[in-house]
Write a structure and sequence with these properties.
single chain, 351 residues, alpha/beta, Rossmann fold, Dihydrodipicolinate Reductase, domain 2, 2 domains, 7-stranded mixed β-sheet, 6-stranded parallel β-sheet, 13 strands, globular
Length: 351
C-alpha cells in the first residue's frame, strides 16, 4: 500500500459523511479520492457544507457513474441509507475485490439474514457478503477487524449500551434477563433529510420517546448480548429524541449476580484500563454528553441503586463520532494497519 491510502466516502452529503471528512482531512495517512452524493452529484462539498470551503476535495459524483476498478480505493466508507448499501457494496467488491469497506448503515450488522428480513422488511441482498462481515465494535472485536474486508459499523445507540454491558455479561456479573436501557439521542441521529417531525418548532422545548417496543437497534443489542452471554437475551430498550445536535446518554439499570455495584465498576475499570476511547469515571460519578462532544470517547459511570443488588450505569458518547464516523475511522485504522488512535485524539469540545 502507498504511504497514503486512497479513501472514498459514499454518501458524503449526510451528517455522518461530513463528520468523516472532518476527521479524515487532517489524517496523515489518507487521501480523500472519491466522494459521492446522489442528490448533490456534480456539486462541490462547500456547496453542501460550507465549512469545507478552504479544502480541495473531489467533486461529488453519483454512485452509478463510478468505475470501481479505476477508482482503485484502498477503503470505502459507506454512509448510505439502509436497504441500498448491500447492493452497492456487492457491486463494489465484485469489481474491486481488493478494496476494503466500512459500512455505517445497518445493512450488515445482523449476522442472521432471516432476522434482518424480519426487522427491516425485505430480504438481504448480499447474504454471501454477510457471512464475511465483521461487527465493528473495536474494543470487543479488534482482532477480527484487523483482517476483515467488510466491517459493519455498529449503531450509535448500540455502541453506547454495548460498551458498558458486554464486559459485565461476559463476566457473568449481571442478570441478562434484567437489563433496562433508557437512551436519549440528539437530533443528528435522525439524519439530514427534511422531515416535518424534525422541524425546530416540532422538537424544541421538549423531548419524547420513539420506536417504543420495536426500534430496530433492539435486534443488534439482542445479538451482541446473546453472544456475550452464550444464550438468548432480550433486552428492554427505549430511545428518546432530545433537542440537541449531538450526543447520546444511556441510563442502564441492571441486577448484579452476587456482585455489588462496586464490583461492576471494578470489572469495567479492568476491562477498559488500556483502551484509548473508553473512560470509566470514578465510582458514583455520572457522564454528560457535553464532556464527549466532538470526540471519539465514551464515558461510563456506575452508581448504587436504592434497591439492594441493583446498579445504575450511565454511558455517554457523541452519536456522530464514536457512535458513527469516529468509530468508522477507528475501524479503518485497524483494517489498514495504522495506529488505532490516528486522527482521533481530539479532546471534546466544551463549552
Amino acid at each position: 500500500m502507498a504511504d497514503k491510502a486512497k479513501i472514498g466516502v459514499l454518501g458524503a452529503s449526510g451528517y455522518t459523511g461530513a463528520e468523516l471528512l472532518r476527521l479524515l482531512l487532517p489524517h496523515p495517512r489518507v487521501e480523500i479520492a472519491l466522494l459521492t452524493a446522489e442528490r448533490r452529484a456534480g456539486q462541490h462539498m462547500r456547496q453542501v457544507f460550507p465549512q469545507f470551503s478552504p479544502y480541495a476535495l473531489p467533486k461529488l459524483l453519483a454512485i452509478d457513474g463510478v468505475d470501481w476498478n479505476k477508482a482503485a480505493l484502498d477503503l470505502a466508507f459507506c454512509a448510505l441509507p439502509h436497504a441500498t448499501t448491500q447492493t452497492v457494496i456487492k457491486d463494489l467488491l465484485a469489481k474491486a475485490p481488493a478494496t476494503k469497506v466500512v459500512d455505517l448503515s445497518a445493512d450488515f450488522r445482523l449476522g442472521d439474514t432471516a432476522a434482518y428480513a424480519r426487522w427491516y422488511g425485505h430480504e438481504h441482498h448480499a447474504p454471501d457478503l454477510q457471512k464475511e462481515a465483521v461487527y465493528g465494535l473495536a474494543e470487543i472485536y479488534r482482532h477480527k477487524i484487523k483482517t476483515a474486508r467488510l466491517v459493519a459499523n455498529p449503531g450509535c445507540y448500540t455502541t453506547c449500551a454495548e460498551l458498558p454491558l458486554i464486559p459485565l455479561l461476559r463476566a457473568k456479573a449481571i442478570d441478562p434477563d434484567e437489563i433496562v436501557i433508557d437512551a436519549k439521542s440528539g437530533m443528528t441521529g435522525a439524519g439530514r433529510a427534511a422531515k416535518e417531525e424534525m422541524l425546530f418548532s416540532e422538537v424544541s422545548e421538549g423531548f419524547h420517546p420513539y420506536g417504543v417496543g420495536h426500534h430496530r437497534h433492539m435486534a443488534e443489542l439482542d445479538q451482541e448480548f446473546s453472544k456475550a452471554t452464550g444464550r438468548n437475551v432480550i433486552v428492554s430498550f427505549t430511545p428518546h429524541l432530545v433537542p440537541m445536535n449531538r450526543g447520546i446518554l444511556s441510563t442502564i439499570y441492571v441486577r448484579g449476580l452476587k456482585t455489588s455495584p462496586q464490583d461492576l465498576h471494578a470489572i469495567l475499570l479492568k476491562s477498559y484500563a488500556g483502551e484509548p476511547f473508553v473512560h470509566v469515571l470514578p465510582f458514583g460519578e455520572m457522564p454528560q454528553t457535553r464532556h464527549v462532544r466532538g470526540s471519539n470517547m465514551t464515558f461510563i459511570g456506575v452508581a448504587n441503586d436504592r434497591v439492594e443488588g441493583r446498579a445504575i450505569i450511565c454511558s455517554a458518547l457523541d452519536n456522530l463520532a464514536k457512535g458513527a464516523s469516529g468509530q468508522a475511522v477507528q475501524n479503518m485504522n485497524l483494517m489498514l494497519g495504522f495506529p488505532e488512535t490516528l486522527g482521533l485524539e481530539q479532546v471534546a469540545l466544551f463549552p
